[in-house]
Amino acid sequence: MLLLASVALATEKIRLGTAMTICHRHPIHLAQLGASLSAIAGGRLVLGIGLGGFAHEFAAAGWPTSLADRAELVKANIEVCRRLWNGETVSYLGPCFDFEQVTLKPTPIKEIPIWIGGGTAAACRRAAAVGDGWMPARVTLATFTSRISYLRDLCSAMGRSMITTAVMPLTSLGRTVESALTGIDVKAVVDESQRFTPWIKSPADSFSESDGSRGLLLAGTPADIIRDTRALGTPAQIMWYMISAYDSPTGENSWSYWEKRCCRPSAENSADQS
After folding, report:
1. Cα gap 140→143, rounded to integer Å
2. Cβ of 229: how many Cβ atoms within 10 Å?
């Protein structure tokens, strides 16, 4: 949140967001942080929120640690934040939080969309029920595509429009795919990611275009990354999680190449660019 506040002061148009906020905080505190950041950023805020992958973090903060308990924490945080952001005087009694007659000032200057994290079917159900969007990380293309179809069916059954979808693949830039993968233990990345997210298809041990790990890790030249990003398709928004980059022999930094070829504002989204 502190880093986003700094970025907000240095930008004017790009949207800012958390990916993901884990519910270690009290929801009143989270609501205060969100409202303050909304004011600093001129309303350019998305709150990503998830269950987290490490039970011991919740234990250290004094919260319940089971997935079911953490899911309830997420729901409670979302409910309290939205009510406080809407200007209500809130009283709440639940297993973890108990408070009366709380009002938040200032409230956000714009509505703060809440995107639900997690690549599981349960995360999709949570997003359809209480979220404005869904954004997994470390998920394969096959799983992501299947989950979007499932999420669309869930939203339709609930009588609501399809929510925003996004994905945050690990991304490594290099002069070649091989150089981009240098120093990265791909099998360890695959194994660790699958530990958190049951995939539609078990991945192979090696990284290739055709194996089941496609989409989990985007690696190669900027042109390679752009091609593989397009494979993720619409309506997803892409949040690249960069883990490496390089300088080209011609002197052009890969970030410059990336910006010119992939981040140029289009007619329909130029208002969201910086």
Report:
1. 5
2. 18
Nearest Cα neighbor of 165 from 119, 222, 208 is 119
H or E stretch covering 237: strand 236-238
For residue 173, what are the β-bridge partners?
A: 220
- Name which of 33-42, 71-80, 150-159, 177-186 the model is least confident about: 177-186
Q: Do 203 and 194 form a contact (C-beta atoms < 8 A)?
A: yes
* 100: phi then psi, degrees, rounded to nearest 5: -135, 145
Predicted confidence (pLDDT) per residue in 70-83, tens digit: 999 999 999 999 99
The closest alpha carbon to 78, from 118, 117, 35, 131, belongs to 131
Under 8 Å between Cβ of 154 and 185: no
* Distance (Å, whole) CA 44 – CA 7: 11
pLDDT digits (tens, 9 = 90+) for 16-36: 999 899 998 899 999 999 999
DSSP code of residue 170: E
Structure tokens given for 72: 């309830």
Instruction: Tell which residue, 35, 129, 22, has the closest CA to residue 81.
Output: 35
**Whether the model pTM is above 0.85:** no
